[in-house]
From TrEMBL:
Residues annotated as binding substrate: 138, 170, 205-208
Family annotation (Pfam families): Methyltransf_4
Protein name listed in UniProt: tRNA (guanine-N(7)-)-methyltransferase
Amino acids binding S-adenosyl-L-methionine: 59, 84, 111, 134
Known pathway: tRNA modification; N(7)-methylguanine-tRNA biosynthesis
Highest taxon, organism lineage: Bacteria
């Protein structure tokens, strides 16, 4: 059962002001009607949204969308639903969708917690990506971090049995918390002995490459939802 305090208080973002560039605004205005999905609070038919049956991967907080577009371009056989609240990021990803002529991306501009809870059916996703969420590095702000037991339990309920949850962070303290939270969930199993090697499908961002050159760490975690146990 979902924690009522989690339902009332957690948000997947902090609203920041930002202005779309002319290119981002043009992409938003012309492509959101085709590739965007409005928040309705009602269950979403994912196959209908993409116009086909294919593996469905959710990405929460895609930033400016470069990694999202690259992953979708590399894997046209899969469908990617991205959730991001910030307009410039949505406009940037839609601009890339147009430039790369991608057909396998859909975007929702809304709080991810509400989208997952209200719009995504149980057992509907083949994978979930959360790459470099806000670390809220001050200790008194740690409670604002997205990766908390209640939200992880909600995410797991939307994964198909055997589907994966992939997190990545460049903040070691958050990586430790992520590992603790995921390891404590009874429906998840770690695919590695602790942190995982970066899967080939996750591209290195420019920011990440710069950090690695400076000796900064990056931690990936890949867990899977346990298969359902058949009654004897």
């Amino acid at each position: 059962m979902e924690n009522p305090d989690f339902q009332r208080h957690i948000k997947s973002f902090v609203l920041r002001q930002g202005h779309l560039t002319p290119g981002q605004k043009r992409a938003y205005d012309t492509l959101f009607p085709r590739f965007g999905i409005e928040y309705t609070g009602q269950p979403l038919d994912l196959d209908a949204a993409f116009g086909r049956q294919a593996a469905k991967i959710l990405e929460i907080g895609f930033g400016m969308g470069q990694a999202s577009a690259e992953i979708a371009e590399r894997h046209p056989e899969q469908d990617y639903l991205g959730i991001e609240v910030h307009g410039p990021g949505v406009g940037s990803l839609l601009k890339l969708v147009g430039e790369k002529q991608l057909e396998n991306i859909r975007v929702i501009r809304h709080d991810a917690v509400e989208v997952v809870r209200e719009m995504l059916p149980a057992d509907s996703l083949d994978g979930i990506h959360i790459f470099f969420p806000d670390p809220w590095h001050k200790k008194r702000h740690n409670k604002r971090r997205l990766v908390q037991p209640g939200f992880v339990a909600l995410l797991v309920s939307r994964l198909k049995p055997g589907a994966y949850l992939h997190l990545a962070t460049d903040w070691e303290d958050y990586a430790i918390q992520m590992l603790d939270v995921l390891s404590a969930n009874p429906d998840l199993v770690n695919t590695a002995a602790g942190y995982a090697p970066r899967p080939d499908y996750r591209p290195l961002t420019k920011f990440e490459q710069r950090g690695l050159r400076l000796g900064h760490g990056v931690w990936d975690l890949v867990f899977r939802r346990k298969p359902l146990v058949s009654p004897q």
